[in-house]
Design brief:
Layout (H helix, E strand, L loop, with lengths): L2 H16 L3 E9 L5 E9 L7 E3 L1 H8 L4 H15 L13 H4 L3 E7 L4 H4 L4 E4 L2 E8 L2 H4 L3 E3 L2 H7 L3 H15 L2 E5 H13 L12 H6 L1 E5 L14 H9 L3 E7 L2 E6 L6 H14 L12 E4 L4 E4 L2
Antiparallel strand pairs: 1-2, 2-3, 4-6, 5-6, 6-7, 8-9, 9-11, 10-11, 10-12, 12-13
Length: about 300
């Protein structure tokens, strides 16, 4: 069954199962870096909360022999998990004074998101773009966000400088930075995935290698690459090591800092970033293929390669 038939069959099945009080629609959603995900939007009559259930992986499962009934069951379960019983009053979003305390920013690749950037306010930074979003209160929507668009600035009657300054203040308060040795990050990752405590000395990473690499993100580890814009830990690290830093963009969620010992060719790091992006990072989570450099004298970050 081709995908067009698959998505039509899903929409028809959901309409039959869920009844007339639900509106079922297929939509293609453009994510970061121009990645397009295909989903089903389920909207209940009288509700302003409409979860999107992505079906690309479900289509692959169906092609591999999973029953259509199981697919529909999964979609219904996903809807129940994501739909909220509360009715959110979105009138607050029309007033900037009620929004500005939760306005934040993130970094995305400038060229890969050129079409999206036509519709949203942004500030260019190296080969990246600083873009803005509203973080919903977790008690209502978990970690849901609303991307801020040019139309919002017009509605709020503010300029991008106001938006940036408010977001900058909020980053320190809501998403404080976190700098950890890479061994600590690996310990947390293995403990979480193995569901048992893994000690640092079990990682198998030498002390020398561990002290050479640090991971910079924020407390929530979401859109953590943006900490590059307000990190004080970078300055403290360079003073302690008395070295500049090479910055490897691990993803939109974190970056890796490597002290510059002046012994490794920049092409080595460029190849490393490419290898990780091409094999380990989801396409919509790639930050950049560039390597960056922090100069402790100027306290500036520039593209190295």
């Amino acid at each position: 069954m081709v995908f067009e038939q698959f998505k039509t069959k899903i929409c028809n099945a959901l309409r039959e199962v869920m009844g007339d009080e639900y509106e079922i629609a297929y939509k293609e959603i453009t994510k970061n870096n121009g990645v397009i995900l295909r989903g089903i939007i389920i909207a209940k009559e009288g509700s302003n909360v409409s979860p999107t259930i992505y079906i690309d992986e479900l289509y692959d499962d169906y092609e591999e022999g999973r029953t259509f009934g199981d697919i529909i069951y999964d979609i219904l379960c996903a809807y129940q998990r994501n739909a909220k019983e509360i009715q959110m009053d979105m009138d607050f979003f029309t007033k900037y004074e009620q929004v500005k305390k939760r306005v934040l920013y993130k970094l995305i690749h400038w060229e890969s998101n050129s079409k999206l950037l036509e519709e949203i306010p942004y500030i260019k930074w190296n080969d990246l773009a600083i873009v803005f979003y509203y973080a919903m209160e977790e008690e209502y929507c978990g970690k849901a966000t609303i991307l801020i668009r040019n139309s919002h600035l017009k509605m709020w009657d503010i300029d991008i400088n106001t938006l940036y300054m408010d977001a900058k203040d909020n980053m320190h308060k809501l998403l404080p930075e976190e700098l950890l040795p890479i061994k600590k990050i690996l310990q947390e990752f293995l403990s979480r995935n193995l569901k048992q405590q893994v000690e640092e000395d079990e990682i198998g990473l030498s002390e020398e290698a561990s002290s050479m690499m640090y991971v910079l993100s924020n407390r929530d580890r979401i859109f953590g690459a943006a900490t590059l814009l307000y990190s004080e830990s970078i300055k403290e690290l360079t003073k302690r090591l008395n070295k500049n830093l090479i910055i490897l963009p691990s993803s939109i969620h974190e970056v890796i800092l490597v002290p510059d010992n002046g012994i490794t060719e920049k092409t080595f790091f460029k190849d490393m970033v490419k290898e990780v992006n091409d094999t380990q990072v989801e396409p919509e989570e790639i930050l950049s293929y560039s390597v960056y450099y922090y100069d402790r004298i100027t306290e500036k970050i520039k593209i190295l390669a």
